[in-house]
Inverse folding.
């Protein structure tokens, strides 16, 4: 069964938010490789905005991550069989990064669209946080004009139907939340940059990555 | 904002399950009057199946009620301002009724359609249980060939967006669950009745009631 | 590890509520046998009040059951390996019984003692409901002056420590809740019976049963 | 009603863990002042270990915080009426600190003592995180030999009794968890320091702070 994150991103690709020149990439669910693939995609497409997504199985709503921490600490293995416990993602990297997404504007826009969303202060210590930290570190060290962050998507109804009493969200709803978030983040980016970049075109490039498990 | 139950039923009416001759009625959210209106509708349309629906705000999935108890016990008032505490719905009525819906078949069918659903053993002690008990009592005392039961629908995403960390379900998903449930219940009804009713037409009449708050 | 119900009852036995002549019995966690053992104990000790207890693992508070239904429907087997699906507890018995405990008085007294408690409208469809129904049926058919009901006890902290993010309650707290419940129920019983039974002694006999799994 | 954190700390003070020379201070629930009072107490008593505690109302278990972030972002005001939104705790301070408590050893010890506990990756963005960050910043910048962290305590049963369906923990249980945590942290500190500090006495000084609301 497809992850909820992958299902939602496919619907966004099929019907992107207006005014966004959207590209996507599937990141391997492998420590290290995920960030390498993410960096390669950023270099290749030079986006203004990166929205990484992952599955947040027990969460009832869209959660936009505010913080990513420099820590891999997982009970299970990644898709290549690697186990990481109490390991920094970037040795000598800072303890944490705040997202560069305008999260309050994004969450408010999603709620106004009639979709439940909140800010989250932890993305866990597995691949989701790994990608969130990796993205923030790339922005801080290599791509200072880029903005980006990580969004958790609840289970799909089909995933919840196989479990006991878990909340879920239709992929169409989650996809609409991602569209609204991208639009809000691009607006914020333009609001913020226009004084500096008078004359900039309005065709901002946005970009979604999604973590997948094999 | 419309109740999740009303939204879902409207979508079922707009696109009914195949082979079902569907009628609907909105029941007043008033003790006593709700059951009177339900009885009038049953008399008027002579359905084979009645599926009553209501909003189950904190529930993450479709819940099909198995039991209705002879008790009104509410903190708040109904839409006519009536307050009922520790009051039997039908004086001298039995303590409880089991539903006449084939609930296991219905829940399995909904889950197989990729929508989370479970059996519930309490519909509470407010209007939802009131209608569930009233329907079961009408079946037991006046309409012995009728089958029916009560289904709780989670909040819509828009309702959840106004609250904190509540689970929700898209109305399109809830509506599909109701279609699947009606189809499964009508199939069961035919399976059950065919030996007895050889020659009966296949156009079973089904019927949805929904509780609404003003 | 002892069940939370057994731990709490042992503490009540060690320090019973004042004025209560308390007896206890451990019921086998076996369909049918549990009720037989319960009946034998009632015949042997002639109590005024029976409070049956069981473990309600996912519940955060003391829950006093209001309703017991005539249904065994379990996924797992009982301690004798019996599996029951969609089976009445008492063939031709009523669909349900309301408890004869003064549940609102009991819940209010527990809350006033600073312990979280609520009324519950379902004891499930496994041994807890089986015993609750069996007790109510014995009262209705053989022991009309007896009062009794069923109380669910949350996990102990030690049980929760072995699981993920489950609520728990210290056995000392649960035991105090049972003492307060017994006292409130006996007071109610005296209030109710005194006009009829002028001259009755004040040493009401109360009685706890507890379901145990091997 | 006393906060659960204050109740638990009082019990620890009344019966400290063996071998710990324990001191306590109540921190004002005021942004800035809380950290000032904490610093003053550290200067005055020169502890080896500081365990700050606060109330985590909706949590079912003892949660030991792993991360504190440089952010005050509260809907409500503190006890002096200050409101802080999107404000750094320490301007130019790092985004976050990891705790210097041996959290896995502490959580394992609490669980082995039969009390539910987990690691938490967010202390929120109100006073609890404020104190956790302030403590970590003091350790990083002024008291490099000190260790410390923050622990969230669930509601007491009495607090949960006034709310709906909230988990709780008896103060005696929470106090025992704090004793076990202090003992484990001091052992870890000795294990870690002994090679360096051969001949050090065994009377490590530990120390509890607790946030209180007026």
């Amino acid at each position: 069964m497809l992850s909820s994150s992958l299902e939602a991103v496919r619907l966004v690709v099929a019907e992107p938010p207006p005014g966004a020149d959207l590209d996507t990439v599937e990141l391997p669910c492998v420590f290290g490789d995920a960030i390498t693939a993410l960096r390669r995609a950023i270099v290749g497409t030079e986006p203004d905005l990166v929205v990484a997504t992952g599955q947040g199985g027990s969460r009832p709503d869209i959660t936009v991550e505010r913080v990513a921490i420099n820590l891999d600490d997982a009970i299970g293995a990644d898709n290549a069989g690697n186990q990481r416990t109490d390991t920094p993602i970037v040795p000598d990297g800072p303890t944490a990064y705040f997202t560069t997404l305008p999260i309050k504007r994004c969450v408010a826009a999603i709620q106004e669209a009639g979709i439940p969303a909140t800010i989250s202060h932890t993305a866990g210590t597995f691949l989701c946080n790994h990608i969130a930290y990796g993205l923030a570190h790339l922005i801080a060290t290599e791509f200072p004009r880029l903005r980006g962050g990580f969004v958790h998507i609840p289970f799909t109804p089909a995933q919840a139907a196989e479990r006991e009493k878990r909340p879920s969200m239709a992929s169409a709803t989650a996809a609409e939340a991602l569209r609204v978030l991208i639009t809000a983040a691009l607006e914020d980016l333009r609001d913020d940059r226009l004084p500096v970049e008078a004359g900039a075109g309005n065709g901002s490039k946005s970009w979604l990555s999604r973590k997948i498990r094999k």
